[in-house]
Every structure is written in structure tokens, then in C-alpha cells.
Amino acid sequence: MPSIRLLPETTHPKTMPNLNLSRAEQVLLSALAITVTAIIALFIALSFFNVPAADDFCFAAKARELGFLDAQVYWYQHWAGRYTLNAVWTALMAGDIFQIYRFPPIALLLGTGLGFAFLTARIAQGALSIPLALLLGGLWTVLFIAGAPDIAQTFYWLGGSITYQLANVTLLFLLGLLIWRETTARTGLLRTVIFWTAAWLVIVTIGANEISMLLVLAILSGGLGYTLWRRRNSRVFWLALTLIAVLATASSVLAPGNYQRYAGLGHTDHMLRPTPWLAALLYLPWVALRLFYWLSNLGLWASALLVFSLSAQPVGALLYDAEGRFRRSFLLLPVLWIALIFLLSAIGFLINRYPLPERAESVIYLLFLLGGYPTFIILAHRWTGAAGGLADRRWRAPAAALLLVSLLGTPNVFEGYKDVYRGYRYAQEMQARNAAIAVALQRGEQDIAVASLSRPPRTLFATDIATDPDDFKNLCLQQYYRVHSIRLGEVRPQQP
Fold it and tell me: Which of 176, 267, 327, 398 has the fewest Cβ atoms nearer than 10 Å?
């Protein structure tokens, strides 16, 4: 296998081969830019209707009670070894959580776009202008939004977004740095900066959740194995990062809180779990159906066709030898990609006998996106050859038009548009609920009933308290407001 080089050395650093756009292609590119910007702006606007829920109140109560540092000790010993989640969540919940809560989704949406843009620019090795790299980063973000299993848990509920989407963002930047180190980072100072930044990102990503932890370990192990096999001068870089990842993993996995939480699994959540044999039987169909669901998005196919067409020349220099024969060793990458998707998806069935929570599946979907494009390119070259008809520029305008329509027609985007209305009502109802709780507290009431929500927005709503005051979510709200109980129920009219 040749050394990694994504573009020929003769390529001008600011131009992409065959990117001379026709008039129709320029119009479609502009339309794509407007569409991507509008969709991201829509989901940013929804953030202003966002309100805390469930575990958010537990973290806020514990931060108020113990302070930041002592709260970290408590969560590490009694809840989980997800030190990144514990630290970030506590820090965000230390202030006025109702005012703060609207801003993390904005940061995560923008961070996702910048992460994809940075990764794209590093893959292109300077062949893209900054505006085009940002557009492609935004396009990837919209495709990610379109396929995310649960938008509310992925971006808006901090219990899910800080656990998984923050790790997705840091993973994107980490991958960009790893590619940078292996391609165009030449100076010693730049390589040193890349190493320490990558080390920090490794620690942060591993401390967020176990799925991202295993994904990082797999990526670093693969990189280390390749550089040792090829005797590349970057093998010390990869070895050091891998050792740091192992230490961070041990720090997270060996936390006493993990064992306390696992010991209570099945006793506190009251879930009916299938037998181990039934879970094993359902595992493969579940993952396969999830993959087919993601593959049903025509926008992914259209964007993959565009990437294949635009990158045919530089990628062909990598995939074919001097005699024009396809290097079959590259077929290993699609195999490893699909195997990793199935292995990471198995964790939920192994621990809970259920699929991964939808917020955790956002990590699997990110892996699906990241590996899907190189897989499509490799297989397309293998089946069609270097001069395959898919690289014909006549495909570009229809593919761009299909991509444009697909972005606007995805269910998640349409739900986001509808939730502009429902989100406003949701925010008003939650504001009324908080005001009612404040009045009850002023009266000295210790057993509080609040009204149910009328029709929560799917994009923003993750969960709510229950009629049972002993429900975990109710107990978190009870701790936050320091009352005896709080529940959904009939609200008595106030006496004059």
C-alpha cells in the first residue's frame, strides 16, 4: 500500500481538479449554500425554545450543593466514569439553567459544522478554499441532522448532547488533526502542536461515553498498526496517542460509579428485557434495518456521487498502480468500516439486551457517514474502473439537484420547521409551569402538582416528569426545588 497522499503533488493548493463549474452548476451550488445555511439557522433558532429536563436538575442540584470539584468526585464515585460529561454538564448547570440551556445546542450545531469543515479541509490538503470547505462542512452537518435517530437527544437535551454529540464534535477535529499529521504537517513545531491538541481531544472524547471511547481506540490502534507496518516516521506519534487513550480509558472504566450504576441496572429502570437468546437473535436484523434506513436517504447517494466525480483524478492516483490496476488492499477499508458499525452496535444488546439508546446511535451514524463516502468511492472505482461513467461531469447537475431536494425533504428537517410553532408553545407552557412552581414555593407548599404539556415538539422534547412522584425524573426536579414531592397532576386554581 502506498504512503498516504490524497492529492497529487502537482495539484495547485487552492484548486480542485475538474472543479470548473458550468452556469447551471454554479446556480445549484449557490442554492445548496442558501439551503444549508437556512436549515442550520432553523435548528439554531429552535434552541431558544429549549428547556432543561430530567438529569439536568440532578446535576444542577448537586453542583449547587457540593460545588464543582466535589460534584466531580461524587459523580465519579456514584454515577459514572464519564469525566468529560460530568465536568461539562456540572459547569453548565451551575448557573441559571433556564437561561443557559438555550446556548449549548447552538454551540454544538456550529461546532459540528466547523468540525466537518476542518476534517474536509484536511482531507483535501489545501485544495479547497475556506468558503467551500465551510459549505461542505455545513452540508455534512445537514446530512447528519437528517439521519440522526433523535434530534432532541442529540442536540437539545444536555444529558444526551454533552454525552454523545460533544464527543462527535471532538472526534471530527481529532480525525482532522490525525490526517494533517500524516499528510502536510512538515515542521516540528506544527507537529508538536498537533500532538498535544490531539492528545487533549483524545482525553475529552474518551471521557464522554463508552461508544466514542471504543471508536477512538479502534482508530488509534488502526493508525498505530499501519504506521508500524509501513515504518513511517509518525509511529511514535501514534504510539504516544494510543498510550494516552489507554490511560484515559482506564480512568473512565475503573470509576467506582460505573459498578454502582451497573449493579442497579434492571432494578431502577423497570424495563422488561428480552432473554439473552432473543436479544442475540434480534441484533443482526436491527443493525441491518438501521443501515437500510440510513441508506434510504437519496441525499447521501447524490452527495456521494458528487464526491466521486469531483475526486476521481486525485483519488485515482492513490487507488491504482502505475499499470492502471486497482489496488485490492483498499477493499479492506469497507470491510473494517462495516464490521466496526456492527461491533459498536452490539454493545447495547450485550449490556441491556436492547439496541443502543437513540442518542448513542448518533455516534454510530457519524461513523456511518465518515466511512460511507470512502467506501462508495473505493467500491465505485473497483466496479467501474478509473474511467468509469460515474465520474462523467454530466452527472453532477442532476446529482446536485437531487441533493438539494433531499435536504429540504428529510423528515427531521420538516419536523424542525413544524416545531417552530410547537416549540414556541412548549416554551410558553414550561415558563408557565416554572411560574406555578415559584408561586407554590412562596406559599410554602412541599407537595406540588404541575400541568401536563399539551403537545411537545419532537425536535426539542426528550422527556418529562411523571404522575409518580418517585420517578427518577421527578426526584431530580424535587432535589432542585428542595421540596418533598413534585408530579404531574390536576392543578387546583389559585384562591383569590
Answer: 267
